[in-house]
Design brief:
single chain; about 220 residues; alpha/beta; Rossmann fold; 6 helices; binds 5-O-phosphono-beta-D-ribofuranosylamine
Length: about 220
């Protein structure tokens, strides 16, 4: 089966991008990372893409009069490359409803909490303040409302006694690096489909889809 052409949108470090690049090195992986786009010139993730021989571009949001113009430029770049799936990986711009609807069920995002808990920023500090025993990460299809949309994969991570934000963030990030490649695999292979705004996984044993335990 032909591998689905994928673009990854980043703004920074790019560790989730790296996890996707590493997964896609496997010839049987159903997606190929063809393009990495950053809105920030010095995003460290651009170097990761270059090191992997992946085409990069920068679409600097500051060069556009408004969000609609920025999103139109992004959209044009993605379509010029024949991209079929777009992965947001630490991309720190809100996308317009027009853009999101144009990529409906082909645009996915990773968020460092068990959505719908803790949408938005500072998720780990808020999880610690709330005293939850588990947090984690979510990969979901993007909808116009930030951090909403049909859930593809989640990984639960325990909050341990004495945890602080950096320790918890590192534990969640390790889970993100497993959850995102799994989610993209499910989407690119066609196994994950949106039915009545929830994701159904073909061939999964449970209604929730494939389960994996991110703990060692
Ligand atoms: C991750 O925690 C991701 O969940 C959030 O932004 C962070 C990006 O990290 N959306 P990286 O750039 O992938 O290392």
């Amino acid at each position: 089966m032909a591998r689905k052409p994928v673009a990854v949108l980043i703004s920074g470090r790019g560790s989730n991008l790296q996890a996707l690049i590493d997964a896609a090195r496997e010839p049987s992986y159903p997606a190929e990372i063809c393009r990495v786009i950053s809105n920030v010139w010095d995003a460290a993730g651009l170097k990761r893409a270059e090191a992997a021989g992946i085409a990069t571009s920068v679409v600097d949001h500051r060069a556009f009069a408004n969000r609609a113009a920025f999103d139109a430029a992004l959209d044009q770049a993605l379509r010029a490359d024949g991209i079929e799936i777009v992965c947001l990986a630490g991309f720190m711009r809100l996308l317009t409803a027009d853009f999101v609807e144009g990529w409906r069920d082909r645009l996915i995002n990773i968020h460092p909490s068990l959505l719908p808990a803790f949408p938005g920023l500072d998720t780990h500090a808020r999880a610690l303040a709330a005293g939850v025993r588990f947090t984690g990460c979510t990969v979901h299809f993007v909808r116009p409302v930030m951090d909403e949309g049909p859930i593809i994969t989640q990984a639960a991570v325990p909050v341990l006694p004495g945890d602080d934000e950096p320790h918890l963030a590192a534990r969640v990030l390790a889970a993100e690096h497993r959850a995102y490649p799994l989610a993209l695999q499910l989407v690119a292979s066609g196994r994950a489909r949106v039915v009545r705004d929830r994701v159904e996984i073909d061939g999964a044993d449970t209604p929730a889809g494939p389960f994996f335990n991110p703990l060692p």
